[in-house]
Amino acid sequence: MGLMTPEEYKTSLNDGRIVYYKGRKIENVAEDPDLKACVETVAVDYHMSEDPQYKDLALVYDEELGENISRYYYVPKNGEDLLKHLDLIIKATELGDGYIPLAHDIGADAMNAIAITARSLGDAGKVYLERIEKYRKYLQKTDKCVVAGVTDVKGDRHLRPSDPKQAHPDFNLRIVEKRKDGIVLRGAKVHITGAAYCHEFFAIPCRALSGPEDSDYAVAVAVPANAKGIRQIVRPFHGRISVDEFPVGSELRRMHTDSLIIFDDVFVPWDRVFLCGEWQVAATCVYNFALMHRRTGCAYRIPMSEQLLGIAVAIADYNGISGAPHVKEKITEIVIYLETLTALSRSACLDYVMHAGIPVPNPITTNIAKYHFAHNYHKIVEIIQDLAGGLLVTAPTYRDWQNPETHADIEKYLQANPEVSTENRLRMFDLVRRLTAGDLETICLHGEGSPFAERMTILMEAKKIIAKSKKLVEDMAGIKK
Ligand SMILES: Cc1cc2nc3c(=O)[nH]c(=O)nc-3n(C[C@H](O)[C@H](O)[C@H](O)COP(=O)(O)OP(=O)(O)OC[C@H]3O[C@@H](n4cnc5c(N)ncnc54)[C@H](O)[C@@H]3O)c2cc1C
Predict the structure, then answer these.
(1) N- to C-terminal Cα distance for the chain?
(2) Which of 104, 145, 151, 439 most suits a substitution to test ligand 1, by most atoms within 8 Å of the C-beta?
């Protein structure tokens, strides 16, 4: 018990979980040639807890336990705590080469959303609140890695989960049986990042529910990844550095992959059930999760955006165009993109609001920050691809560079800025290609919720300011109501 070391984390994954990857059943995810890169990404969090340089940021002393716990599992008290949390994710993502380690953060977002939901139920929520706080203690003591299974496969998006027109009732996770000792769940969650190599996952509703007929879908639980009836199908990992690219010291990039999780009549004991039928508060749960998780998304996007600025500046320099006015303008555009994201994310923490006694980042600012980075991402990528030029896709490969018959031609003709070697220019093209590939575009757009979800929240949260602004101009126009 206590904080987990990176090695303990890796060893603990060999627990009989059922994981399928590229058509095979995986014996031990920590040893799979691809998935081990994802395991290393998570391990960054565990390394930080051990490293004297990052300990203060990564850990908080817990008076009750008399020991250090992960900062993620500590309940924030104010804006300063939210800001530290933001700084922790930024630093962890920097150490993860631009990928958020994910060991505790997404699970903590779900846990806090569940606690807020339980509190919002008043007396009826007391039992859930006790259970979630007991579960929080368990996580604080064991330091386990928990992710969040929110997104259901959903079926037809226009239809309610229980609508008889759905092809079957299992598109959204649902309770199929209530027993003395717990409940039984059936359904599937999709795109769940890190699920194949976490210890446990939360499953919470992914949408508001509109009536008692959907009450079996109002369920929030914590489930071990090796629970009976859980099967995962993992999407391909795209972090392998090919033999055509210049070597960078490791053949695998730190990255994540995502799972389709099948709940095949999974039994969950009562002490791990945090919502069971209260359809009225499914919206509270998903809303608060989305809010905190979007702030998490903004945090890890800051170092990712610094990388975008870095590759833009570097490739412009290596191409010998950094002095051109239009290039300076484009670099300025990326600086504005990054600094807007940073300022909004920090401001969202300091200008926090209280939800059922727990400070949460400002809803409007958080949603604008998330919307800003996703909505403008393609524009930023377009700038980078523009600055890089056609060699981004037509450059000869590392294998051509190594071939004595072609090496000299490549070295002579593909240099640009005389102060930068051809090799470094080609290395940078490899990196630009890796960092602006399609995978990242999709996660930017849809991770933490599609752009429409942010716009909806912004409009909903802005009711007061909209009414105030309208009243202001009505007063100015002498309109009396
Ligand atoms: C790489 C990646 C990692 C992710 N990680 C996680 C994770 O760890 N945990 C997790 O829970 N989720 C995760 N997600 C899921 C993410 O939150 C969802 O992808 C996002 O909410 C969109 O849901 P969807 O993919 O089902 O798309 P859809 O909901 O099918 O959306 C597709 C389009 O349909 C529109 N649409 C959807 N429903 C309606 C409707 N009723 N009426 C009109 N238009 C509609 C949307 O606005 C969007 O334009 C991840 C996603 C990605 C891409």
Answers:
(1) 65
(2) 151
Query: Ligand 1 atom 12: the closest Cα is on which residue?
Result: 151
Shared-domain flag, residues 193 and 308: no
Do both 237 and 326 map to the same domain?
no
How close is the Cα of 238 to the center of ligand 1, in Å? 20
Ligand 1 geometric centre to CA of 335 (Å): 29
- Model confidence at 452, in pLDDT bands (50, 70, 90)? confident
81 located within any domain:
yes
Domains of the chain: total: 2
Which tokens in the block code for residue 41? 């990404």
Q: Residue 138 is part of a domain; what is its CATH number?
A: 2.40.110.10
Distance between Cα 150 and ligand 1 center (Å) = 10
- The CA-atom distances, in angstroms, between 459 and each of 41, 275, 367 are 36, 28, 10
Q: What is the pLDDT of residues 67-106, one digit of tens each?
A: 999 999 999 999 999 999 999 999 999 999 989 998 899 9
Same domain as 164, residue 73:
yes
Q: Which pair of tokens denotes residue 35? A: 């998935």
Q: Identify whether 480 is part of a domain.
A: no
For the chain, how big is the Rg over CA atoms in Å?
24
Residues 275 and 414 reside in one and the same domain: no
Structure token pair of residue 452: 């429409």
- pTM, rounded to two decimals: 0.92
Closest by CA position to 373, among listed 352, 332, 344: 344
How much distance in Å is there from the Cα of 191 to the middle of ligand 1?
A: 9
Residue 240 bridge partners (DSSP): 252
The Å distance, Cα 450 to ligand 1 centre, comes to: 6
Say how many Å lie between the CA of residue 125 and the centre of ligand 1. Answer: 29
- Average pLDDT, integer, range 359-368: 97
Q: Are residues 87 and 158 in the same domain?
A: yes
Residue type, 92: A
**Contact yes or no for 416/391 (Cβ under 8 A):** no
In a domain, 241, yes or no: yes
The pair of structure tokens assigned to 280 is 């009225």
Given this model, what pLDDT does residue 454 score? 85
Q: Which of 41, 191, 258, 294 is the pocket-test mutation for ligand 1 (most atoms within 8 Å of CB)?
A: 191
Q: Is residue 358 part of a domain?
A: yes
Same domain, 276 and 318: no
Q: Which residues line ligand 1 (CB under 6 A)?
A: 106, 147-151, 154, 157-158, 191-193, 258, 442-443, 446-447, 449-450, 452
**Domain containing 189: what range?**
6-280
* Ligand 1 nearest-atom number relative to CA 442: 53
